[in-house]
Amino acid sequence: MKRRKGILSTVIVMALAVSLCLAGCRLSDDKLSQKQAEEKLSALASKVKAREVGHSPDNSWVGSSGSIDELPDIDLKYPVSVSGKGGTTVEIFSSTEKSAKDGSGWLDIQAKAFNAARKDMSVSVRPIASGSAVGYITSGKHVPEAYTPSNVLWVEMLKAKGVESALISEKLTGNTAGILMKPNVHKKIVEKYQEVTIDTVVEAVLAGDLVVAHTDPNVSSTGLNIMIQELSAFDRNDPFGAASRDMMRKFVDKIPPVSPTTAETVEVANKGLADAILSEYQSWKSDPTLKDWVFVPMGVRHDSPLYVVAENATPAQRKVLEAFAEFCATPAAQASATSLGFNPTDGYEGVASGLSGTELYTALDFWKQNKDAGKAVLSVFVADRSGSMAGEPLEQLKISLLNGSNYINENHYVGMVSYANAKDITIDLPIDRFDAKQHSLFYGAVRDLEADGQTATNSALVVAMDMLVKKRDELGLSDAKLRIFLLSDGLENQGYSLNSVRGVIGGLNIPIYTIGYNAELTTLEELAAINEAYYTPAESNDVIMKIKELFTSQL
């Protein structure tokens, strides 16, 4: 009996030892140094047999700069939250801080009350981000009678594209953009710099005293607003000149890559990667998790001006908008706005942007050309062409990649890998500068994709990482930014497991931006989270636009 107990104890001890060893190996693997990660990558890559496949160039991209088709069906992507049903009706594009799909936003509430009170007129509200609204209006794909963005900047940009508008109300309700800081950080900045202004924020970031997470200025009203203030702080006399460019490159090298929305910047801060974020006053007041943070207003005010934008808007429709603006200005309506976080009491008057719509577009282009701090960017697209991607997913992948390629900077280096099972991984485009020749080869490689077989996602990622490291070393670009864009449905059933490559991805610090087509979310989200990239769910009705936004901000 004692012998049996001794054997059992030995077995238990051995099992615990193995378990601890495995846990330790996993822990150390997750914390690989760059050198260790490169050594393990080399070992993993040696066991993957990827073949290089040539493709004929396709020059059909020449002369194109995206497509109206990148805008999804507006009723599927941005359905109306309130429908006008009586008398003369107008449709209003509304920024999403004051309207929501479920009709719970402040403007939704006012629209419902207005429609109930009036039998001769009514309004419909369509929640849509201000930047996205500009795309629909300027393309002509869907033009409402009225538009109420967060701030005046977007209307200036409409004007630059030849869209005329008429002001109905300068302010539906009060709001401001600004910088939101953790309390201890705000205290330290005030102690050292006396006050928090756009100039002292720039100074503090450059000095390493502050890290601010930003939102994408192409789609975020706050991101655009603060970005142009920063350009002015870099060089007030010439915000698009060489001095401003050099300052911007130093600045962006000290902050995280932009996030799509304020929610993502909050996550970045919560992970300890930023001390402050860009935010609107109303977003801060309506989020209880941020109540202890300190908000400092900056830039152009976000007072939700209301404009007529449709050329064929009738006098009767203009009267509807005037009546609705008056309704929104009543004490009851403004009390409702205040209860939802609008109408700051700090007395901030805002600043004039000082930029025309044309200059705002120049600012966005200037930002895109310099957002990588002047460093080389090497990217590999990893495309899933397994059997589960057959049909619409693969077709959407191809269309979105072809359209999105028009938004890749020409000075970036781009390659492409596609895969099915572990024995069918191909290098479709070796990494090279994305000039006209590489663009044409990329087009040809994408068009040739065909779906079949099993799915070896992580083995394909090993091939892509190996390509990036070798090309970086070949070019002698030790400070280059390496990136992977994985386009997949997330269903993997062959080749390396995620656990076997996780440490390599983390040690190399290569962000993997994942785009999921009818996706198995968990794996794609885990891959993106390793190095603070993000996952983009690619629903069939908006995947092309999402890829465009991703490439504009990251490539």
What does this 3D model show about the protein?
- Helix content is 45%, strand content 16%.
- It contains 21 helices and 16 strands.
- It has helices at 2-30, 34-45, 74-77, 106-117, 130-139, 153-160, 183-193, 198-206, 221-234, 242-252, 262-270, 281-285, 315-328, 331-339, 357-370, 392-404, 436-447, 457-475, 498-508, 521-530, 543-554, and strands at 51-52, 88-94, 121-127, 146-148, 166-169, 176-181, 212-213, 276-280, 294-301, 306-308, 377-384, 413-419, 425-433, 481-488, 512-516, 535-537.
- The protein has a 7-stranded mixed beta sheet, with helices on both faces. The protein has a 5-stranded mixed beta sheet with strand order 3-2-4-10-5.
- Strand 12 and strand 13 (425-433) form a beta hairpin.
- Helix 6 packs across helix 15 (357-370).
What would the keywords be for this entry?
555 residues; alpha/beta; seven-stranded mixed beta sheet; five-stranded mixed beta sheet; 21 helices; 45% helix; disordered N terminus
- Catalogue the unreliable spans: 1-28
Biggest sheet: strand arrangement? 1-13-12-11-14-15-16
Number of helices: 21
Q: Structural class of the secondary structure composition?
A: alpha/beta
Give a quick account of the main beta sheet: strands, pairing sense, barrel closure: 7 strands, mixed
What is the mean pLDDT?
89
List the helices and strands and how they pair.
Elements: H1 2-30, H2 34-45, E1 51-52, H3 74-77, E2 88-94, H4 106-117, E3 121-127, H5 130-139, E4 146-148, H6 153-160, E5 166-169, E6 176-181, H7 183-193, H8 198-206, E7 212-213, H9 221-234, H10 242-252, H11 262-270, E8 276-280, H12 281-285, E9 294-301, E10 306-308, H13 315-328, H14 331-339, H15 357-370, E11 377-384, H16 392-404, E12 413-419, E13 425-433, H17 436-447, H18 457-475, E14 481-488, H19 498-508, E15 512-516, H20 521-530, E16 535-537, H21 543-554
Parallel strand pairs: 1-13, 2-3, 2-4, 7-8, 11-12, 11-14, 14-15, 15-16
Antiparallel strand pairs: 4-10, 5-10, 6-8, 6-9, 12-13
Helix pairs in contact: 1-19, 2-18, 2-19, 5-6, 6-15, 9-10, 9-15, 16-21
